[in-house]
Amino acid sequence: MSKVKVDQIDPRTGGGTLTIGTSGDTVTVPSGVTMTTAGTFNASNINAGTMATARLGSGSATSSTFLRGDQTWQDPGGMPDYWSSTAFAAYLDSNQAISSSSQTTVTLDREDFDLGSNFDLSTYTYTAPSTGTYYIAAGIGGDAMANTQASEVWAIVMIGGGNAINAGINWAANPGRRLNAVTGKLVAVNASDAILLQAYITDSSGSPEINGNRRNTFLCGYRVY
After folding, report:
1. Which of 56, 123, 144, 202 is deepest in the core (most CB within 10 A)?
2. 55 and 90: one domain?
3. What is the mean pLDDT of residues 162-176?
4. Environment class of residue 100 by beta-carbon count within 10 Å: exposed (0-12), middle (13-18) or buried (19+)?
5. Are residues 95 and 67 both part of a single domain?
6. Which has the closest alpha carbon to 142: 182, 90, 196, 195?
7. How far is 98 from 107, CA to CA, in rounded Å?
8. CA-CA-CA-CA torsion for 188, 189, 190, 196, nearest 10 degrees?
9. 207 vs 180, 214, 225, CA distance in Å?
10. What distance in Å separates the CA atoms of residue 23 and residue 42, rounded to the nearest whole number?
């Protein structure tokens, strides 16, 4: 095999085409040789094989990353798992006597779960750990009304000091009936907002009670996004 040593190869005429090899030939660039170009090399000329992912961008190219527009491999992330740090459910364990027609905080003294440890059983208050949209649900069970006049029960959820959710029910001229008011909706909540449940019961007997039962008197919720 012969070797030709030159510093530059040019076509015979200026601006002409320089061809290396003939169809079917193999041109080998030995290991350790660096090829550089200051001109244009069309990507369409790469018509065989697979481009190594490391050549496409910086960062770690894996099955769990994607190539971003700034040519970096990035973790796509996903929907944050808010449930594990915000979901809670508290309830009233035993009847609570309140004054008629007086909005009163419910002494929610038991928990079914509190995944973020944000519910305070001593203040009956949930403190939102982060800003977002939460689904909050609540219920008030009014114990049996012993009068023959109209009675009503309201479940009122206070968020950040304001009345954010409420639902009421009334029952006229039907003594001995237990009234349950239940509500739930998506609401905007700010970090550190206090969320608590209040009851409003009208009873002409003057001594209504909130029914202590996890099915009737409760406050629960979680951050959706």
Report:
1. 202
2. no
3. 72
4. middle
5. no
6. 182
7. 11
8. 150
9. 17, 22, 41
10. 19
Q: Does residue 9 belong to any structural domain of this protein? A: no
Going along 66-109, which residue ranges are E strands? 66-67, 73-74, 88-91, 96-97, 104-105
The last residue of a domain, from among 42, 77, 112:
77
Per-residue pLDDT tens for 94-109? 999 999 899 999 999 9
Give backbone dihedrals phi and psi of 102, rounded to 5 degrees, phi first. -135, 120
**Domain assignment of residue 29, yes or no:** no
Q: How confident is the model over 18-36, as pLDDT tens digits? A: 888 888 888 888 888 888 8
**24 in any annotated domain:** no
Q: Do residue 65 and residue 102 come from a single domain?
A: no
Residue burial 1-32, b: 16+ Cβ < 10 Å; e: rest: eeeeeeeeeeeeeeeeeeeeeeeeeeeeeeee
Domain region containing 191: 83-223
Residue 12 reports pLDDT greater than 90: no
| pLDDT, position 168 | 81
pLDDT of residue 132: 96
147 & 200 share domain: yes
Distance CA 114, CA 181 (A): 23
Q: Are residues 125 and 162 in the same domain?
A: yes
